[in-house]
Amino acid sequence: MELFDGRLAAYSDDKIINIYKRSTKIVFSIKSINSIIKWIIQTKDQKLICCSYEITILKLYKDHFETLQIIKNSWTNKIFEIKEFDNNSNLVASQNNYIRIYEISKKSNLYKLKETIRFNENVNNFIYLKNDDYALILDDYFKNIYINIYNLKLHNKKVNLYQIKAKDSGDMCILQNKYLVVSVYLNLILIDIEEEYKVIHVIKTIFGCVNSFCYFKNYTFFSGDDVGDITEWQIIDNKLKKIKEYNNCKEDVNSIIKYNNNSWIAAGSNDGLIKFYETDF
Fold first, then answer.
1. More confident residue, 244 or 280
2. CA proximity to 9, closest of 44, 45, 46
3. 65: Cα within 13 Å, side-chain hemisphere
4. Which residue from 111, 122, 95 is spatially nearest to 38, judged by alpha carbons?
5. Do strands 179-184 and 169-175 pair parallel, antiparallel, or not at all (unpaired)?
6. Which end of the chain is more exposed for a tag (fewer CB within 10 A), N or C?
């Protein structure tokens, strides 16, 4: 991911986060993370939050870091920062079959558990849509994958969008607040957010799952998948269309982001490398 000051933070299965300058020279590495790093975000107040078996909250400086807080709970698959109406910062995290919401304490400036929402299935992935609506990818121990729209504020399942027998699911991406793209094993699913969350296109794929989407502009986006490819896509006439494919490596592409004022994309994969591609349109 790209940090607010232009540096790049990259994670991989070696349990280390590397911080890069634009020259791609490593500035420093964070080695205090005790488990595989599943997801990282940077908050509006420029904390770096890493999650896996625990949530680790860091403060970054130019050449070092400070651990501010560790939340020990359960496996955290994904985490988002949501701003409330009073401008407080809340963290929304998927942890096994729970969604947990953490709020910042004004007294201690630390995150504390605010609310827990339990599901009957595991929460594989989730993303904020609008008006407290979230898209959730659920599974019943990798037999069936469900895509539901859930209102977290009301604790209410609004729409059961899609169900498929599949062993795994991947990432999700929003384009222009109009479309939601969801990756399920050997499938890409296109959902119209404006049309009451209607599934409008499903295509079969040769790769397993998309590990990371990167929204570029308008209705163009990139995907990084299980077989080591980066693919450029466009949505044309409410359908997914493959534009170009780049062979990145022979291993999983775990993370892909826009970089260098959106003129490049950066991809991190299981081969331990970060590769940069110039987006030439």
1. 244
2. 46
3. 25
4. 95
5. antiparallel
6. C
**pTM > 0.90:** no
Q: Please write the tens of the pLDDT for every residue from 149-181.
A: 999 888 888 889 999 998 889 999 999 999 999
Kind of pairing between the strands at 133-139 and 145-151: antiparallel
b/e burial code for range 113-137 (CB count within 10 A of at least 16 → b): eeeeeebebbbbbbbebeeebbbbb
Q: Specify the amino acid at residue 187.
A: N
Can you tell me the distance from the alpha carbon of 93 to that of 261, in angstroms, rounded to the nearest whole number? 29
3-state secondary structure 1-50: CECCCCCEEEECCCCCEEEECCCCCEEEEECCCCCCCCEEEECCCCEEEE
